Amino acid sequence: MSIEFIQNILVILLSAYVVMDNLGITIFNYWAVTTGMLVGLIMGDINTGLLIGGTFQLMSLGVAGLGGASVPDYGLAALVGTFLAIRTGSGLSTAVAVGLPVGLLAINFDVLVKILNNFVAHKMQRLAHEGKYKQMLLWGWIGPIMFMLKSVIIVTIIVTVGPGVIKSILNIIPQWVTDGLNIAGGMLPVLGIALLLHYMPAKKYLWAVLIGFVLSTYLKVPIIGVSIVGAAAAILIYQSKAEEIVTSKEKMSSLSIINEGDYDE
């Protein structure tokens, strides 16, 4: 059994573990820099793993799958890119050239898995109403397993066949399939935001929603900039309420002193 075969198996197992870990106890964060480092450790070149993982981590800054949005899988891109770069000895350029298409391909798989998970959720709900709790728990594993397979299938193909297959798959997929998945991917964020607003005090802080909308839509401020403005507003509100509490306590203590003086008289 060659060292390359063992490395292939370990990389495939790692692609499965990091996804399940991210959906569960989270020992390793599913960040690009983390997956790149772990693949570098397996392949015997941790410095290259950190370099490639850090590069993809920088690409992912400010990108978040909020609500139900499907975004490029930079963790998977770093995993694949690091493996190929170290295996072929070609460096960062190959990692980026192959890793980015893989991360973009994962968007379509992510949308498909989220759609299928809706059926799983309804099945679990029906089993719960019927009192079949053991079956419900078994069905609960299907969702994480599908997310795991999303990464494992891609990594297995690349590890066993080669990087050219991913580009071939992207060219083979019909345009109408890609367009349909893109439409579904555009609807999921809207649904996610609507659900978040339903449970958040949006009416109370409508001014904050409007400020964020104006900054993002009209002034073209990036997500990080909007987040900084939101954090600053939250700090101001917190400080203002803290001062109100202190002032209220001082008034209460002064009133109690006055009342005690009245009783003494």
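Second entry:
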Amino acid sequence: MTQIKKDLLEVVENMMIPEVEAYLEDLHTIIEKKEQTEENMEEVRDMESFLVELQNIIYAVNEGKIDDEQAKEIYEKIQGLIKESHSHE
């Protein structure tokens, strides 16, 4: 496996998925307390969809379904998302 694919897997498995899962847990806690808004419900749908996309990336890399150029493009997009989310903190 090439380095870019290893880097992509690492950022997806060790950073993105845990962050999305933690955020989903927070949203589900809000829902359990019956304090949710329509915006929260939309966020849950979006995050669950995003989680599936991340899992599909892992599958595609492991099954050789994406090439290095595609892996690089996805990796760069994820890095952009990370930078954007950290600038909002």
